[in-house]
What we know:
By secondary structure, the chain is an alpha+beta fold. The protein has a domain at 7-162: Collagenase (Catalytic Domain) (3-Layer(aba) Sandwich), CATH 3.40.390.
Amino acid sequence: MTFKMARGKAHQTLLALCLCYAVVETISAPMDVATRADGSVLVGDMLYSAAQWQSLLARNLHSKEVLWPKTNGVVKIPYKIANPKINVTLLKLAISAWESKTCLEFPELPAADTTTAEYLNILIEKSCWSGVGYAQGRVTNISIAGDECDLKGIIHEFGHAMGLQHEQSRSDRDDNIIVITANIQPGDEHNYKKFDTVNYGIPYDYYSVLQYDDRAASKTAARVMLARDARFQKVMGEGKEISFMNMKLVNTMYGCIDDWLTNCKLSPEPCKNGGFTKKDCSCACPLGTTGANCENFVMSYNDALIQKLTPHSANITKPGEVTSPGYPKFIRLG
Length: 334
Ligand SMILES: *[C@@H]1O[C@H](CO)[C@@H](O)[C@H](O)[C@H]1NC(C)=O
Ligand SMILES: *[C@@H]1O[C@H](CO)[C@@H](O)[C@H](O)[C@H]1NC(C)=O
Ligand SMILES: *[C@@H]1O[C@H](CO)[C@@H](O)[C@H](O)[C@H]1NC(C)=O
Ligand SMILES: [Zn+2]
């Protein structure tokens, strides 16, 4: 992954992109969803009829079929360090970033362990890539090689290992971005494939750690993606950490929120405006809301995100001249 968009560098990073997908497979995995007596399934606040659910399964939805199984109420994703040259400090920073924001646990297995074939195998191969999700009876390989595989890079690859697709591959991407296929490097079109992802009602996030920047896999360094909300054009690919929506998606996919609500004896969800109950029973509130239960809606997540990332941005309301000091460098303040 990791597109630092020095223009000429685009091509070199393609391998990572390709590999991200080379290992995508459609393997059935146990899914921890509660099937109701009539066969219907409740996912978050969306109820699927038995027929709808079966049709979803039949269409091989990546984001459901690649979930790691939950055993005795806990999703454990063990990992093994396959190469002693791995920077364990950095690896553990990425792991604790996900552990602190989700209910997933990543126990380390000794290199000699033979008790399970299903674990993350942390390798140093060429560049930064990962298999997508759980594969029954097999390892999920993750390569974290080179400088491009920095903390963000490893967090991104672990996102894939948990079953996440790229943001620009979500089923609803066309509502949020315009993909200019003519600008894609020939042979790399698969990097902009749209997947039939299940998004659990969680909105597209330009600031997702799974979002590529606008020139990724470009033929000529021209933009491949246009943000439909133009304020986000330069935000795409800039997300350095697990975004609110990344965290909410993983916690929804893996039933963490349902488990926390149960443990906290809370029902229905007390957190408003897109917030959700965390492990400590308090609310995780999206940007743009305040109050212990996120009950005060100040502005939308996207408006709040823009205000945080580019506090000096303003809408152009009358004709005039616009100057952009430092362009095209992304200016991050605060
Ligand atoms: C390992 O990663 C840490 C955290 O980013 C960094 O401080 C350290 O210099 C890295 N070690 C090596 C040997 O690269
Ligand atoms: C994982 O990587 C190892 C070492 O390169 C390789 O032997 C194995 O076939 C890979 N497994 C999968 C499932 O890709
Ligand atoms: C700019 O306009 C958009 C669309 O009308 C609005 O949502 C946004 O809040 C405005 N931003 C600023 C900084 O005024
Ligand atoms: Zn990726």
